[in-house]
Amino acid sequence: MLNRRHRPLLQAVIFLGLIGALGYSVFLYNTLNLKLEKSDQQIRKFTKQQKSLSSQLQVVYEHRAKLEKSFEKEKSEHKKTKAELASNKKEFLFNVTRAKHETRNRFNSLETQHRMLKAQHEELELEYNRLQQQHSRLSSEHQEVHRQQMQSFNSLKEQKKMEIINLEEQIKTFKEQAASLRVRLSEVEQDAAYYKGLHNKGLLDIQRQQTTIISLNQRLRELKKYQKSSIGEDVSVEHMQPNAHRLGPADTRPGVAHPRPPQLPQAKQTKQ
């Protein structure tokens, strides 16, 4: 009786157990499917990564081959550059040695020239000192000579002033005599050519007087010029005095014709 009374309950429990087992199986199946899908996704992902890595590895291999070729090329170029560098180094050392030798020779030559120039400088310095002393001595002598010359010049200046005054008085006298002669000569100007051959003596006297006046005027100008420039020669008037005594009153003897020389232009006579 007990089994009959509990049989539906037992069946229900068994049914629930079967339903639970079925549900658990479905749950396990779904779980396994999910895991399988995840595994497939991972496998596909890993496969893609493998392909990507394979392609990258292929690129790396190609790049490595290129680098090896480039390395070989660089290595050959390095050997060539090394050989050129060694050659250039050898040539550079040769040039440096030669330049060093030339520089040493040039330095020795310049040192020799420097010694010569130093010796010349010392000689020139001694010569300069000697010339400086000589210049000082000559300067003092020049000052003394200049002082003496100034004293001589002042005395000579006073002397020439007196001579100029005397000459001016003589020239004034000669001008007065020449004026009187020109007045008398102007009266017979038309007959000068005719009587020239007959009265050479009177003509020569008048010409000597005019020559004397011109000479005195020239002396006067020279003395004035000497007075202004402080340079000149001593003017002597001793040889002029006889010429001054030659001038005198014209010959007034009766019956003697007094020819007159050709008359100078009025402007020139006034200047004289």
UniProtKB/TrEMBL annotation:
<dbReference type="GO" id="GO:0016020">
    <property type="term" value="C:membrane"/>
</dbReference>
<feature type="coiled-coil region">
    <location>
        <begin position="29"/>
        <end position="191"/>
    </location>
</feature>
<dbReference type="GO" id="GO:0005794">
    <property type="term" value="C:Golgi apparatus"/>
</dbReference>
<feature type="region of interest" description="Disordered">
    <location>
        <begin position="233"/>
        <end position="272"/>
    </location>
</feature>
<protein>
    <recommendedName>
        <fullName>Golgi integral membrane protein 4</fullName>
    </recommendedName>
</protein>
<dbReference type="InterPro" id="IPR042336">
    <property type="entry name" value="GOLIM4"/>
</dbReference>
<dbReference type="GO" id="GO:0000139">
    <property type="term" value="C:Golgi membrane"/>
</dbReference>
<keyword id="KW-0175">Coiled coil</keyword>
